[in-house]
Automatic annotation (TrEMBL):
Domain spans labelled Integral membrane bound transporter: 413-530
Regions that span the bilayer: 21-39, 68-87, 93-112, 119-138, 150-170, 448-465, 493-510, 516-538
NCBIfam families: YCCS, YCCS_YHFK
Protein name, UniProt field: TIGR01666 family membrane protein
Record family assignment: Belongs to the YccS/YhfK family.
Chief localisation class: membrane
Domain (Integral membrane protein YccS N-terminal) ranges: 71-355
GO cellular component: plasma membrane
PANTHER family referenced in this protein's UniProt entry, alphabetically: INNER MEMBRANE PROTEIN YCCS, P-HYDROXYBENZOIC ACID EFFLUX PUMP SUBUNIT-RELATED
InterPro entries documented for this protein: Integral_membrane_YccS (IPR010019), Integral_membrane_YCCS_YHJK (IPR010020), Memb_transporter_dom (IPR049453), YccS_N (IPR032692)
Keywords: Cell membrane, Membrane, Transmembrane, Transmembrane helix
Cellular localisation: Cell membrane
Bilayer disposition of the protein: Multi-pass membrane protein
Length: 728
């Protein structure tokens, strides 16, 4: 048994998302390094290392059987790519045509699915690695066509074998990491939400809501990742008890998200009415404690420790006591506000019950629908249909494929024109830098150049200070591991690490110092070509399509509202149709937030819609919060009230108005205000809510009133977006 002082740090390392990935890479690189030293043949080091890197870049999450199948496909693709490069390397015209066609085709595979995109991108990278390897050896020697492809594919197969074995041994660990990430992001969301309850007059609510909308995008991304990981493990098998437990934890996280994103009343009115009371402080503390509880839950899940939500349970008791005190005062002017606070209390109490139930997620009712929506292609026909749907200049994937293939062909022509030393690094830089939109390309271009300069300086210093080959070999392995540990979140450091690894590897077989200036020159040239390509070849300015993404957000919200109203009419059921409508609404909200982030990185002329878009995002996320509150309080069938046709008609009219605004915005037409109609609906619903004795019906009516009033502001923001879009 290891001492506690040693096991605790190891357990904490095990909870890091990049640790297992980096450890696999370390085993692969160290094994190859040791083999080359043992055989006294360092000439094989670089192609073996490059094969390992390409294979690690091609890795996707899956079961061990699925990963084995993906590995076999990847190795075939790698072998075909490497041999094709070898056969055409000495024929520049044929090579250029093949480079353009293959890069276009492999990029288009991104339209089929993420797995296809990952393998295709890694194959393209390996093809360029083959070019680099061949250039190092001065071309293709007669009778040795097999050498470089065999070494590259062998390195890839070695890492792939480690990956498959690892997946078989630790198949559930990625699920734990993913679900822990979901609960951490939920914790951040809840703590941001708690700031809205701070009773301050004149607080910038819009800025708080913007931060919430941006964090909601991170929560949605984490939920989507977990869902895909669970689905891949459920696919083709019944699923064991542990896998079903993770599935139920995912559904609990979805329920918490719906309740966390709910809003029951304008926060400014609550702060004004209860400024001299402690109820909002209690609500703020409760949400903060529940956020901390979500974070603690994620950590407990990773460390297999008991989860304690005692502080949040105590905060709920304190909040209920404060609310009871306000009810006891019996002030008529507080009646509607207190009913909204009671609905908030019910919502947060249910959220607390969800947290309490994570220790026994199997208690979720067996009759509930546990199916997941499968977005993967179903056969070759589905693959062909997806590809065909993107063969259009309107498709971002098609435009990016044309842009990237043109970038590589231009780079190839340029390196033949000026004959730079180690010129194929130009193509590699272009592949990593050229992204589907200007904002992402600009970010990666800057980070690539900064990381390359940092890596070259560090490499020059280290190979000068440590001229012995064994130490440089250790540095190369450590740098390769650092690349994979940092590439997801710290691309500058990752680029520096991979540059350092390349210098140390080349210094094992030649002169690493001679690579410093060519590497810098090629990086600058490749980055410049990619940057110009994004600017001039079918530029995909996100600002120009902002109104369409905003319309998609409203359309998804309208579908979510209709799904909620159907549940109020028929009774609560967390079936696939309802969960899909809810997830689509949140996905659209997250996509709008991501689009706006990209718009803010674009040149000034294309960024002019950003302020209007940010205001629209605030209003649309507020609308989604009101919808989430409706969804969170679904109860018995008939809550809409069969005898209250006016409320039912108003609800249908609100949903239709939302869909109509979405259609007008998508088409770039003049968006009708609907202010009079919506204000009338809001007044009718508020009057009905004031007289309603049934809490569930009252909440439906009051939330629909909030949605109606929110639609007025949302229609105005949509109108400004549509007007600016029509001027393009």
């Amino acid at each position: 048994m290891l001492p506690t002082s040693l096991t605790q740090p190891l357990r904490r390392l095990w909870t890091l998302e990049s640790f297992a990935y980096s450890l696999r890479v370390f085993i692969a690189l160290a094994g190859v390094m040791a083999l080359c030293w043992y055989l006294d043949d360092m000439g094989k080091l670089i192609p073996l290392f490059l094969g390992i890197i390409a294979s690690a870049l091609a890795e996707t999450d899956d079961t061990w059987q699925g990963r084995l199948q993906a590995l076999l496909v990847t190795l075939v693709c790698f072998a075909v790519a490497a041999v094709s490069v070898e056969l055409t390397f000495a024929h520049p015209v044929i090579f250029a045509v093949g480079l353009g066609v293959s890069s276009f085709g492999m990029t288009m595979l991104g339209a089929v699915g993420q797995r296809y995109a990952t393998i295709a991108t890694a194959t393209l990278i390996l093809a360029i690695y083959t070019m680099i390897s061949l250039e190092q050896h001065g071309g293709v020697a007669l009778g040795e066509l097999w050498r470089e492809p065999l070494l590259l594919v062998s390195g890839a197969a070695w890492y792939g074998a480690i990956s498959v074995v690892w997946c078989a041994l630790f198949s559930r660990h990625p699920l734990k990491l993913s679900l822990a990430h979901v609960f951490r992001e939920l914790g951040v969301y809840l703590r941001l939400k708690s700031a809205l309850f701070e009773p301050l007059r004149g607080m910038d609510i819009e800025q708080q809501r913007l931060a919430l909308a941006q964090q909601n995008g991170r929560v949605v991304a984490a939920l989507n990742q977990s869902k895909e990981m669970i689905f891949r493990r459920l696919e083709g098998q019944r699923g064991g008890r542990k896998l079903n437990r993770y599935l139920r934890l995912y559904f609990i996280a979805q329920d918490i998200h719906e309740r966390a994103s709910s809003s029951h009343y304008p926060y400014g009115a609550l702060a004004e009415a209860f400024f001299h009371h402690d109820i909002l402080f209690r609500a703020q503390r409760l949400l903060d404690q529940q956020g901390r509880a979500c974070k603690a839950l994620g950590r407990a899940l990773l460390l297999d420790r008991p989860f304690d939500h005692g502080p949040s349970a105590q905060a709920l008791e304190d909040f209920n006591a404060s609310l009871h005190n306000l009810h006891a005062q019996g002030r008529d002017e507080w009646r509607d506000l207190l009913r909204s606070l009671s609905a908030l209390a019910d919502n947060l109490a249910t959220l607390e019950d969800k947290l309490a139930g994570v220790d026994n997620p199997d208690a979720r009712a067996d009759h509930e629908d546990s199916s997941l929506f499968d977005r993967s292609p179903r056969g070759l026909r589905d693959v062909a249909e997806r590809l065909q749907a993107h063969v259009s200049l309107a498709s971002p994937v098609f435009r990016h494929a044309l842009r990237l293939s043109a970038t590589l062909v231009v780079g190839y022509g340029l390196l033949h024109w000026i004959h730079p030393t180690q010129g194929y690094w130009i193509l590699l830089t272009s592949v990593f830098v050229c992204r589907p939109n200007f904002g992402a390309t600009r970010r990666f271009l800057r980070q690539r150049i900064q990381g390359t300069v940092l890596g070259l300086v560090a490499g020059w210093a280290l190979i000068t200070l440590f001229p012995t080959e064994p130490i440089q070999a250790l540095i190369a392995v450590a740098a390769g591991v650092a690349f994979f540990a940092t590439r997801a979140h710290h691309y500058t450091l990752a680029t520096a690490a991979i540059t350092l690894m390349v210098l140390c590897c080349f210094n094992q077989v030649g002169d690493g110092f001679g690579l410093i200036w060519p590497r810098l020159f090629d990086t600058l040239l490749g980055a410049a070509i990619a940057g110009l390509a994004v600017l001039v070849i079918l530029p995909d300015w996100q600002g120009r399509g902002l109104h369409r993404q905003a319309a998609a957000t409203l359309e998804a919200s309208a579908a979510y509202l209709r799904a909620i109203l159907d549940q109020y009419a028929r009774g609560k059921r967390d079936d696939l149709a309802y969960r899909l409508a809810r997830r689509n609404a949140h996905n659209a909200d997250a996509a709008l937030s991501t689009t706006l982030g990209n718009v803010l990185l674009e040149p000034g002329h294309f960024r002019k819609d950003a302020d209007v878009g940010l205001r629209f995002l605030v209003h649309s996320h507020t609308l989604l919060s009101y919808l989430s509150a409706l969804g969170a309080h679904r109860g018995a069938a008939g809550a809409a009230g069969d005898d209250n046709t006016a409320v039912t008609a108003a609800a249908d009219d609100v949903a239709e108005t939302l869909a109509r605004v979405a259609r007008q915005l998508a088409a770039g037409e003049t968006v009708e205000s609907h202010q009079d109609t919506l204000t009338r609906h809001a007044g009718l619903l508020e009057a009905s809510a004031a007289e309603e004795a049934c809490d569930e019906r009252r909440l439906l009516q009051s939330q629909l009133a909030l949605i109606s009033r929110q639609l007025v502001a949302l229609s105005e923001a949509a109108g400004r977006l549509s007007t600016q879009a029509s001027r393009e």
